[in-house]
Amino acid sequence: MAGIAKVRLKWVKNRSLDHIIDTETDLKAACLLKDAIKRSPTGFLTAKSFADWQKLLGLTVPVLRFMRRYPTLFQEFPHARYANLPCFKLTDTALLLDSQEQSIHQTHESDTVERLCRVLMMTKSKTIPLQSLYPLKWDLGLPDGFEKVLVPKYPDCFRIIKASNGIGCLKVIQWPKEYAVSELQRSKEGGDLGDEYRQFKRGQTVLAFPMNFPKGYGGQKKVRVWMEEFQKLPYISPYEDSRHIDPNSDLMEKRVVGVLHELLSLTLHKKTKRNYLRSLREELNLPHKFTRIFTRYPGIFYLSLKCKTTTVALREGYQRGKLVNWHPLTRMREKFYHVMRTGLLYRSKGVHLLSPQEILLNSVESESGPEESEEDEVGAGDECYEDEMSNLDSEGSDED
Known about the structure:
- By secondary structure, the protein is mainly alpha-helical.
- The protein has helices at 15-39, 54-57, 63-69, 92-107, 109-121, 130-133, 137-140, 146-149, 183-189, 194-201, 221-232, 250-266, 274-278, 292-296, 328-346, 356-361, 382-390, and strands spanning 45-46, 74-78, 86-90, 127-129, 158-162, 168-172, 271-273, 301-304, 311-314, 318-319, 322-323.
- 41% of the residues lie in helices and 10% in strands.
- A hairpin with a 6-residue loop joins strand 8 (301-304) and strand 9.
- It comes from Prunus yedoensis var. nudiflora.
């Protein structure tokens, strides 16, 4: 069988997705700092303690400057013994937001357990090192300290074990059949697409990935032919054992697309950093240069270099600059970001005059960015991006 054609497409910038990645980088950093303050036995953090966290948090500015931007969340005060050492504790507003977040975690705990099980079920050994899961905690909607507060509550689902190298790992114990159904399969089960899924279950057809090409690509004949050939290949569930598939075959390439599609579908914001996926490469049975998939299939994935890092997003997860499916935690995070923006606007006007209730009762306007277009232009700065794309699969650590 001849291999499917490979069409190299030029990268096209998507301003709305770039804007989302930009704003949610600050949102994620603020959430992680909030959790760090909560974990601190003193109830506050000193500027010295987080001085070297900038890279870890993915920020483009020093952490001290970042925290001072958002007085609605972080209250600054001098250290009791060292007057020139700034300290930060959580405001009443931040504490109120955190209590609402914890309530959502408890209410939707079964959803979190299923999501975590499904990530583990995609791996070869049904095991992932905890150090590889920690960076994905925010993206997957796991509670802070999930290995201590969530995992012990479900001994029939999870177990923390030690690998041969002594590293702590999380292992899935059960294999619930209802979990081993991919998001792509679930999306085809109901509604107008139900017939397509029933035919797929009988082996009479294949499942097609949703495609949303940048402007101009979808109408190109060579692109249409390429994607039709790709879509006709059998769909391999990411929960099936793939070790028998020829690693150099087109079938394996489609299976890799399916795994990456599923993993991104399981994230709350339908996106994550490229390096977080790379740390799972061996367990997910992905090829060494799997990140080429992101640029080879721009109708499915979008790759961004915003905030000096590489983020991959699932195109179908967004429509006109907004998430298509909102999880309660993403709604909560939208409110959190609104409070951040309020602090930025009022920091020179005495934000202490606003009570937590006044801030939280304000209408929460979506900060997701431009709505007027999904596909944008190849413009200034693209040559720099193209250079980065050519080095996408180079070995070694990323800046993430």
